What we know:
Order of helices and strands: HHH
Number of domains: 1
Structural class: mainly alpha
Membrane topology: Multi-pass membrane protein
Distance between the termini: 39 Å
GO cellular component, one term: endoplasmic reticulum-Golgi intermediate compartment membrane
Low-confidence stretches: none
Radius of gyration: 24 Å
Largest sheet: none
Helix content: over 70%
Protein name: Vacuolar ATPase assembly integral membrane protein VMA21
Pfam family, one: VMA21
Function: Required for the assembly of the V0 complex of the vacuolar ATPase (V-ATPase) in the endoplasmic reticulum.
Amino acid sequence: MEPVGKETLNAALPPQDLRSSEGSLVSILKTLLFFTALMITLPIGLYFTSKSYVFEGTFGMSNRDSYFYAAIVAVVAVHVVLAMFVYVAWNEGSRQWREGKQD
């Protein structure tokens, strides 16, 4: 049996780029899960809240009119969440590109 050299031990370890990409992958997954949860909860919550409390309660609108305006609020919320996701993803991608370019 021959002695284990330093090269053999270093070959068994994952490269540094792989470790940083795993951390990057976890960060991306957390961002995606956050915006997924936001995409589900925010429009639905705003729809029912604005329908009940804002349009029917405060403005005294009919049930039919409040459905329409609450749906508009929910659609605007979806677009805001999508715009926020694109902004965060764009900035995260350009940051990773800059860090990779400096190496």
